[in-house]
Amino acid sequence: MPIVVMKGQVAQKKKIYEYIYKLSKELGINRMHKKVLIVKFVTSCDDQAEGSCWGDTTEGYAEILIARNSCDEKMSHESMMKTLAHEMVHAKQYFRKELCGYSMSWKGKKPRNYKYENAPWEKEAFAKEEELWKKCW
Question: What is the total count of domains within the chain?
Answer without folding.
Answer: 1
